[in-house]
Amino acid sequence: MTPRNILFDWSGTLVDDLPPVLEATNSVLQHFGREPMSRDQFRRSFRLPFSGYYEEHLPGVTLEELDPIWHRAFRASRQPVTIIPHAREYLEACAARNLRLFVLSSAPQDAVERQAANLRLDHFFERIHAGVFDKRERIASLLAEHNLATHDTIMIGDMRHDVHTAKAGGIRSVAVLTGYEFPEVIATAEPDLMVDNLDVLLNLHFS
């Protein structure tokens, strides 16, 4: 069944921002005397909310200490942020059918808005909700704010946290394998549907 409303995660779902995120994260780790991580090491260990990730790798360091370092490095990064293959086509198909589209992301609000504008994706969304520390705690109020019926709404994301968020809101979850978490990791959250990419979902929803 095609949904009427879709909540999208941003990073790893619609855009690949892993290069600057990894660069900023390694800046934090190195600042506190830790070794930098490879892309695969980061993907294996990173999780949301990110407080748990930093508690594991930088015990005793507060978010207030590390957050400015991360944001400064992220803003300074020259690493590219690119649209994930098939994302634009899927958004266009949704827009053509007048679906209501939203972003729910833990990435910084200004970064998501800037990336959306630069990639010409911003016009697809009714609202961008970013900078959300724990999406599980935001989902209920977001659904109520926009008057989104749970039976007509899905969330699409690339991490277990997105699946858990959908479950917390009583909506269906779709996991895409284009982002941060490996298939065997996100599968442990038991999403309602798991697809390789948004092209698969395009065919499922609109063919």
Which terms summarize this structure?
207 residues, alpha/beta, Rossmann fold, 2 domains, 6-stranded parallel β-sheet, two-stranded antiparallel sheet, 10 helices, 14% strand
Walk me through the structure.
The structure is a single chain. The chain is of the alpha/beta class and 207 residues long. The protein has 2 domains: 5-16 and 81-206, HAD superfamily/HAD-like (Rossmann fold), CATH 3.40.50; 18-76. The chain is built from 10 helices and 8 strands. It has helices at residues 18-31, 39-45, 50-57, 63-76, 87-96, 109-118, 139-145, 160-169, 183-186, 198-206, and strands at 5-8, 15-16, 82-83, 100-104, 127-129, 153-157, 172-176, 193-195. A 6-stranded parallel sheet has the order 5-4-1-6-7-8, with helices on both faces. It has a two-stranded antiparallel sheet with strand order 2-3. Strand 4, helix 6 (109-118) and strand 5 form a beta-alpha-beta unit. Helix 1 packs across helix 4 (63-76). It is globular. The model has no long low-confidence stretch (mean pLDDT 96).
